[in-house]
Design brief:
about 25% strand; alpha/beta; about 25% helix; 5-stranded parallel β-sheet; homodimer; globular; about 450 residues; 12 helices
């Protein structure tokens, strides 16, 4: 049995490791256009920030470790064409610039996603970066250490993590967001609050430009970026730019081969992570996901999901029978003293999906008010008015805002109604929560709203 | 309508406030043998520790505020007899030492619990305390500020909170536990680990004696405690002693009146918090609770539960129809840098309740290993082997051990099996959790154990 895996960051590396254990006799080859495999891309902002000195800390398993177990790793080798009828893939060797064909019995597509580059004049200047790979992180850190000002285009999860990193390194930072508020994946009421709270802790270390876009980059005679111009015609100096304006799945070569693409633009897979071809699987950021709440197709590319999908694909390839039940879109991001977290549907997306969302938002202490270190958190709960079913939640604050969202994920898995959730018996002690946790406050208010009229 | 409430800390005060809102015309009288009402007893260890200067911080609502709303507060007034056929209660005025009868249409028993005093010779010496009331907290803090050594008898939640308080105040502390390990409400494997971890952070500031009891107290000529002797015959000096050897419900006067007592020794109530008498309710620490997992009767006296029960009793007295669905026994306690948390059944109690418990325990980082402030947590998950249903969990560690138990509470409310719980999509970012959260690690191991044989 010849197994070929395309891509090796999270899903691909996980699939390779799991397949090795499950199928000791299979021939396993992993091809990636990257220079590294099996690394924690989510850790790059913390490497840049200097939380650890050696980027190798991010490597989960080295090519040598894989090779020692008989998994052949081919770096700088990009898949450019799949020939499904022939069970072959055409690979381009980026070092020697030649192409060659490899055969497979089973193929795993785990080619991930790449940064979206907005239409900006002069975008290819020196010191203009994206952040996906280890080398990106190394280059950004190196440049940041000698810079005074950094610009971040986009204020999603990675944009905000980089904002923290640059501020901690002592740079002045400008973050430019096209949407009216930062972190636009959240509901507008929460995004606007996040923006207000970020502004409140800025202390002249960073500025946020919203409803703005970068249209042009300026450079010096060495081809280095020196500034930028916005859509509203403002001009700014900068020493470096990182583009964090979203990602898109690497699926073009798969589409060309007839691999079905879902409505979200990512590769369509069933619960076994199999594509429309019997012996081609897809997992990780290049694959479409299913929302566990209602089975809706979504594309929410996250590292934790990629790991799980790689594992499930491997189990099924080896003859097992394991379903990947889908995601909730749960995510958390820290930016300096603020934590922002969400799971499930936002109110706006719940409406689009045909629910009748109703929500309750509370701002409360995260522990008893007389304790040192008490902080506020704002918590929004969303439910369907017709059924009372919980649909999602968002939290933001200097307080303990992350794990409360995880209490909600279990409620979503259990398909609890708001009323059922109000019965929850959460732990209580003064250092950890108020007598009535903000989660229960919000649930009680939401229940009253649902019951009214 | 005349409503009489007996007791006024959490359940009684909450019932009074809620009844006032729901029944503006009712005559409401609250009798308590305490000198304060409506206070956060759970905050007393933090007052003793000095987290805030004024004990009044612990008062939620003053007698004056209640009076302003027409709720009559009678301090130092103890209920000594209920005459259910006459709808009267005999009250003893502790200030003037006289008794008087009051009439009620509806009676709320919220008399709480009191400390159990073990059979110790000379237990009534000066500087021997229990910790239930505001004055206890004031007296303990006052004595601690001039003491060099404190002894705590019992290592439950309050014992461990006091251990932290005394250590933070710079006292040398001895904690004496009759059971083989501290915090014996946890399973023995976790209790023994807690003890080991506590010993690891002691730094000569405190010592733990287990499988030991205090048999005798020694005193000086002023009647002050100066030391103690243990069952194994060891002798120790001490400047003060706090007895935290458990509590029992204040129900004797109710039992005498024919109010039914449940198998747990607390007052039997239905989901409306009503006793066997149509117009007598009980709530808070004096009332029996139901475990939501299987409907078993339990007595787990906790402040957060008392608040909810007081609210439910008030709603039903006012003609509403609200059930209190019960508890999970969720609790958390901090002791210095350690957090200990639990919910649902322990393995030992699950066995006694007729389940076939199977468990998985993992010790993992609480966030990604390369992050600063990373710490270990140990997490134990318990499920029923036959049905796969989750039954409970326990967590301990220097890491983020509290909120992960709250994720489990929602899973218990939703009656999730371990397999369903493994599908959970928890939030992930390096500062908050490893890629695979310890909760999911433990669930996966537990699932494998359940599926095996």
């Amino acid at each position: 049995m010849k197994i070929v895996i395309l891509g090796g960051v999270a899903a691909g590396a996980k699939a390779a490791a799991k397949l090795r254990r499950l199928m000791p006799d299979a021939e396993i080859d992993l091809y990636t256009d990257d220079t590294h495999i099996s690394y924690s891309a989510c850790g790059l902002p913390y490497y840049i920030q200097g939380n650890f000195a050696d980027y190798k800390t991010l490597l989960v398993r080295s090519p040598q470790e894989f090779e020692a177990q008989g998994v052949h790793i081919h770096l700088l080798s990009r898949a450019i064409k799949i020939l499904p009828e022939l069970n072959q893939v055409l690979i381009q060797d980026l070092k020697e610039n030649r192409a060659f064909l490899v055969e497979y019995d089973q193929l795993v597509i785990a080619t991930g996603a790449r940064a979206v580059i907005p239409p900006i004049k002069n975008v290819n200047l020196k010191n203009v970066f994206t952040l996906r790979h280890i080398e990106d992180g190394i280059a950004i850190r190196e440049k940041a250490l000698t810079s005074r000002h950094a610009t971040i285009i986009g204020s999603g999860y990675i944009g905000l993590e980089l904002l923290e990193a640059f501020v901690e390194l002592g740079l002045k930072v400008t973050i430019v967001e096209f949407a009216p508020f930062v972190l636009p994946i959240f509901d507008t009421d929460i995004s606007s609050l996040i923006q207000e709270q970020l502004a409140g802790i800025s202390d002249n270390r960073f500025q946020i430009l919203t409803s703005e876009l970068v249209t042009e980059l300026y450079n010096n005679e060495r081809g280095e970026v020196t500034g930028f111009k916005t859509g509203k015609g403002k001009e700014f100096f900068t020493d470096m730019v990182v583009i964090c304006a979203g990602v898109k799945p690497n699926i073009e070569f798969a589409r060309e081969a007839g691999v079905a693409i879902g409505e979200t633009g990512a590769i369509k897979v069933n619960k076994h992570m199999r594509t429309n071809f019997q012996n081609i699987y897809a997992c990780g950021d290049c694959a479409e996901k299913m929302l566990m709440i209602d089975g809706a197709k979504v594309w929410i590319p996250l590292g934790s999901t990629a790991n799980k999908e790689g594992r499930v694909a491997a189990i099924n390839i080896s003859g097992g029978d394991q379903d990947f039940e889908g995601v909730l879109g749960s995510a958390v991001v820290r930016c300096l003293s603020l934590t922002m977290s969400m799971t499930g549907y936002t109110e706006k997306k719940a409406s689009l999906a045909g629910f009748q969302p109703v929500s309750a938002t509370v701002t409360k202490f995260d522990r008893v008010g007389y304790m040192p270190d008490v902080n506020n958190i704002t918590l929004k709960l969303i439910a369907d008015k017709t059924t009372g079913l919980l649909l999602g939640g968002q939290a933001v604050g200097a307080g303990d805002a992350d794990k409360r969202i995880n209490t909600l994920t279990a409620a979503l898995i259990g398909r609890l109604t708001v009323e059922e959730f109000t019965k929850n018996d959460l732990t209580y002690a003064p250092p950890f929560s108020p007598t009535i946790d903000p989660l229960l406050n919000a649930a009680q208010i939401l229940l009253a709203k649902i019951k009214k009229d």
